Automatic annotation (TrEMBL):
Source lineage: Eukaryota, Metazoa, Ecdysozoa, Arthropoda, Hexapoda
Claim: Ion transport is one of the keywords in the record: no
InterPro entries (UniProt xref): Haem_peroxidase_animal, Haem_peroxidase_sf, Haem_peroxidase_sf_animal
Amino acids binding heme b: 462
Molecular function via GO: heme binding; metal ion binding; peroxidase activity
Signal peptide range: 1-18
One of the Pfam families matching this protein, by short name: An_peroxidase
Name this polypeptide is given: Peroxidase
UniProt superkingdom: Eukaryota
């Protein structure tokens, strides 16, 4: 062991000596100090990690030509592993191009437009040739320009198992209702605060940034109580006749340890909007839920998911995003609908506008959104000063491209190994040990977010959320903390005193909670707690109910999909779930096949070197593979959409620590790996000591190696639909 530690230190020293170019390697080597083959018995990871071997590959996207909402037919389901995959269907079949073959005249939805009229995603008729991404993700895939755009279907690894086979929520095998989601939540997920020994709250929070970048169920704000009320004002169940459409309320059992004391028997829950609700499919075809944002990891949370939102957040001057100066700091612009969008206690409190509507949901999320906005404007200022001849559009697009490149680098090389493991990521070609291009874009891979990923596996990381947020000084002392449920959807705290910088340092200092079955009560009892109220809602129960709403196949189905033996008795779950939890499951559920994916997956023993058990790891791995390989604009790709070799080497130096340093006004020092707790080997250093992305590489030398062509394109520069 001592030898091992010594060799790690030596390796680090060599890497540091090798200079900033090797910074990415520093992350790769050191990202998971907890993973140690000798400690965990050799090949544990090898044994359990899902391998994307050809025979086991999840179904790839059939690259079809269109996704128009008028396409009523569904392509035949693909066969894989002897199972019919549902994702052959939802993509729809070729339908005629309604926009003709001229200049694109897209039916751009107006902000006030009824979302129902958006159908199931409207792909453009053809794609302008561009070095830059579109805002909605259209034309990323030139064979299927609508792939991954907003208002389209989540993809699926396994077909849905609705109660009626078509759209009603999942039932038990017997035909009985499944156990109350709230009963499952309070029985399985107590509040036992165990801190993660290695990772900071920043790792949790950046995870939420990544998920908001990739998906959002249609029909819910995820920030405020739903306008549709499925319970009576005093928390009782409504009779079916009086229940509004799409209601699927959570039944609170009489023996509930918390809610029964308030005599609450019903928790609001409104079903996700599907392609069936939008009439995009025939009556007898199974429903697929829609996502409101594009699937690409493209900082759409900053730049918006369509042209209209992008126009609302852009200054159209100097390539900058709109920001407001107060107290010598740069803030996100005010939301013009502050009273509607935020829970304000005072009309003058700030409520922000960003590319994503969830920006105000919790203080630490808003901190990161603000840092990413400031980073764009910081980059834009540098580009404008070194290229005074560039117009607003060129500066904006180049700054956006750099910001996205840094975000992809940080998400994959710094954040992802913590969550899905370094070995696993390398083995599955999600990460590469290279300084050069990777060029693994594959147009046959569907980047659409998997329903199982967004609505079960990735939500597991709600377990990492801490209920109290530390306010931390530059000397890394805690001044105190704030209670998260006092500040849901109320970002006013950021502008009080030095809170912004204190919360920023808190992200890098406070540990996240451990990846386990325990959840902070701020999430399981106080989600969306209203001022003066003793209790809010239970996010864990909502996630269990969402799993059923989406008709996800059972935990047992995914076990076998991911290579674990299919269980025929509860006892068979003992291979990866503790005896206590298996016994609890057996008292709640009638049959092992009834156990919800969200529940079973979250109880599995965590694979060392990752933050997930084998089944969720398999789903997460599949998603993050698709997200990179299915993105034509991925930052490690060469060609006219990519960076030069030298620029790419600079992007690889970016780190979350440097983003926090450069954009937190009073943040003067940070540990190099800011997703990892401060320690002797990850000590706080002055910001200037952290590797920096040298933006002079973007100086336009007019014909030189780093010449940046104009953002414009001629009329002949179009990729026509094949
Ligand atoms: C304080 C932090 C967080 C809060 C308050 C929060 C809250 C929520 C809420 C309210 C929803 C929607 C529930 C529903 O109606 O179905 C949601 C969805 C989700 N959350 Fe979180 N969350 C937090 C952090 C995280 C983190 C750290 C992750 C992962 C690393 C995560 C992953 C997800 C995912 C994947 C979804 C589904 C996204 C979609 O709509 O497609 N969340 N969360």
């Amino acid at each position: 062991m001592a030898l091992k530690a010594l060799s790690l230190l030596l390796l680090e020293a060599i890497l540091i000596q090798a200079g900033p170019q090797s910074y990415q390697n520093l992350f790769l080597q050191r990202i998971n100090p907890q993973y140690d083959n000798t400690v965990y018995g050799g090949n544990l990871i090898e044994d359990h990690v899902y391998s994307r071997a050809p025979g086991k590959l999840a179904p790839q996207a059939p690259i079809l030509q269109s996704n128009y909402h008028s396409a009523p037919q569904v392509a035949p389901a693909i066969q894989f592993n002897g199972v019919a995959a549902a994702n052959g269907g939802p993509l729809g079949t070729l339908s005629p191009n309604p926009y003709g073959q001229g200049f694109p005249q897209l039916p751009i939805p107006q902000p006030t437009q009824d979302p129902a009229s958006l159908g199931c995603g409207q792909a453009p008729g053809f794609c302008p040739k561009s070095r830059y991404r579109s805002y909605d993700g259209s034309c990323n895939n030139l064979n299927n320009p609508g792939l991954g755009i907003p208002q389209t279907r989540y993809n699926r690894l396994l077909p849905a198992k609705y109660g009626d086979g078509i759209s009603t929520p999942t039932m038990a095998l017997s035909g009985n209702p499944l156990p109350s989601a709230r009963a499952v939540s309070f029985s399985m997920y107590p509040d036992i605060p165990i801190e993660d020994p290695i990772w900071t709250l920043n790792a949790m929070q950046y995870g939420q940034i990544i998920t908001h970048d990739m998906s959002m169920i249609v029909g819910s704000t995820q920030t405020q109580p739903h306008a549709t009320r499925c319970c009576s004002p005093d928390g009782q169940l409504l009779d079916l006749a009086n229940s509004p459409e799409h209601c699927f309320p959570i039944v609170v059992p009489q023996n509930d340890p918390a809610y029964s004391q308030q005599n609450i028997r019903c928790m609001n829950f409104v079903r996700t909007i599907t392609d069936k609700d939008r009439r995009c499919i025939g009556d007898h075809q199974p429903a697929e839920q829609l996502t409101a944002v594009n699937s690409y990891l493209d900082l759409s949370i900053v730049y918006g998911n369509n042209d209209q939102v992008n126009q609302q957040v852009r200054l159209f001057q100097g390539g900058r995003l709109i920001s407001e100066q107060r107290n010598s700091q740069e803030w996100l612009p005010r939301n013009p609908n502050a009273t509607g969008a935020c829970t304000l206690l005072d009309i003058n409190e700030p409520c922000y506008l960003a590319g994503d509507t969830r920006v105000n949901q919790n203080p630490q999320l808003t901190v990161l959104q603000t840092l990413l906005l400031r980073e764009h404007n910081r980059i834009a200022s540098v580009l404008a000063s070194i290229n005074p001849h560039w117009d607003d559009e060129t500066i904006f697009q180049e700054a956006r491209k750099i910001n996205i490149g840094q975000h992809q680098q940080i998400s994959y090389y710094e954040w992802l190994p913590i969550f899905i493991g370094l070995d696993n990521s390398l083995k599955n070609k999600i990460l590469w040990r290279t300084q050069g291009y990777v060029d693994d874009y594959d147009p046959t891979v569907n980047p659409s977010v998997l329903n199982e990923h967004a609505n079960a596996a990735f939500r597991f990381f709600h377990t990492l959320i801490a209920g109290q947020l530390d306010l931390v000084s530059e000397r890394r002392n805690s001044y105190g903390n704030i209670r998260i449920s006092d500040w849901f959807n109320r970002p006013a705290i950021l502008e009080q005193g030095n809170s912004f910088d204190e919360l920023t340092r808190g992200l890098g200092t406070q540990p996240e909670l451990a990846a386990d079955a325990y959840h902070d009560r701020e999430i399981t009892l106080n989600w969306l707690r209203q001022p003066g109220q003793p209790l809010g809602q239970d996010l864990k129960a909502i996630c269990i109910q969402r799993n059923r709403d989406h008709g996800l196949a059972s935990y047992n189905d995914y076990r076998s999909f991911c290579g674990l033996p299919k269980a025929s008795s509860f006892q068979d779950f003992l291979d990866v779930i503790s005896r206590d939890n298996v016994e609890r499951l057996a008292t709640l559920y009638e049959h092992p096949d009834d156990v919800d994916l969200t529940v079973g997956g979250s109880l599995e023993t965590i694979i060392p070197g990752t933050l997930a058990g084998p089944t969720f790891l398999c789903i997460l791995t599949e998603q993050f593979y698709r997200t990179r390989v299915g993105d034509r604009f991925w930052f490690e790709n060469s060609g006219e959409t990519g960076f030069t070799q030298q620029q790419l080497a600079e992007i690889r130096k970016s780190s979350i620590a440097r983003i926090m340093c450069d954009n937190g006004r009073g943040v003067r020092a940070m540990q190099p790996r800011a997703f990892e707790r401060i320690s002797q080997s990850n000590a706080v250093v002055p910001c200037e000591a952290l590797p920096v992305v040298d933006l002079s590489l973007w100086k336009d030398l007019k014909g030189g190696s780093s010449h940046i062509p104009s953002a414009g394109f001629g009329t002949s520069d179009y990729y026509f639909k094949k």
